[in-house]
Amino acid sequence: MIVCTVTCADNLHEAAVMAKSVKEHMSGTKVIVCLAEKKTHPSASKIRYFDQIVLAANLGIPNFAQYLFKYVLFEGVTSLKPHLLKYLMSYYPNERQFVYLDSDMRLFRSPRELMDAMDSNRIVLVPQQLEADSLWDVHLFNGSINSGMVGVTRSEEAMRFVEWWAERTYHYCYFNHQFFADQKWLDLAPSFFDVNMFKHPGYNVAFWNIHEQARKGLHLAAGQLWLTDKPLCIFHYSHYENFLPSSLNKWVADRESSRIVMETYVQDLAETGIQNISLTPWSFDFYDNGERITPESRAKFKSNPYFQEIMTNPFAASNKVFR
Questions:
Q1: Inside any domain, residue 276
Q2: In this predicted model, what pLDDT tens digit does every residue of 6-25 receive, in sequence order?
Q3: β-strand 145-153 against 97-101: which pairing, if any?
Q4: pLDDT at site 156
Q5: Contacts for 224 with CB less than 8 Å, ≥ 6 apart
Q6: In terms of pTM, does the model score above 0.90?
Q7: In the listed set 149, 181, 201, which residue is the last one of a domain according to the structure?
Q8: Is residue 242 part of a domain?
Q9: How far is residue 146 CA from its own chain's centroid?
Q10: Known InterPro entries for this protein (predicted)?
Q11: Torsion over CA: 307, 293, 54, 236 (sign)
């Protein structure tokens, strides 16, 4: 099995924690990181839990510079998820199963239920929430399926899905109500593909679903973290510095388990020794000459077919070209 993620340099410390937890709980699994930067950051090569680092430009995406220039950081990084899966399915023809995990996730135990689901299904997706009574209106904006965890098992159906998703994020991965970057496309996937909706509450536990009955019963038992009646397997530490601790404080009665969830992650991040990397600016926010790309320049490029036609590498230009 291969577990993969996409990250930029400022989140390498989070990716290191995710990779370490995979190595601890999924023996023999390869961890492969796509780095969405112009060059491999020196810190990336020092993380021993990464089996391979591949630069985004080496995924085989056509007209890569034109494709990426139109996206801001969040859009660009998330747009790469299906392209990475597509690349890995080609690069590792003997590997059968591939799991994408966001870099800010951490495993607390072996994901046996997920592996069982992938043995029986070609495409495994995870809902944002499990309980209809708790559905927030916000999911009309960001989608009902979370793209932070996607599993595919080698098959024609899985490849069709990955290629379909990649085609859409290539052109339309904008952070707005219509697309929410890469994510809302996944809401359509069950209509077009044979998808398994993986509903185990111990996976993809996050600030936006910890209020659910199946999850807010987080507690410690026999030295392991459990939810109401299921074991905690994968925690999604999105917004761990703000929304997550406030959500835990609001919904989880067992303060000790909340403390363990947070302190475990903070300690893991500190042990990477590269926390200061979070201050690293995104290299694709700059032209090759070092000038910062303005939002106006990106907007003009993505809305003007003339620029897209004549500029094979917009990163070699400057803001004055778009004035």
A1: no
A2: 999 999 999 999 999 999 99
A3: antiparallel
A4: 97
A5: 108, 109, 231, 232
A6: yes
A7: 201
A8: no
A9: 9
A10: Nucleotide-diphossugar_trans
A11: negative
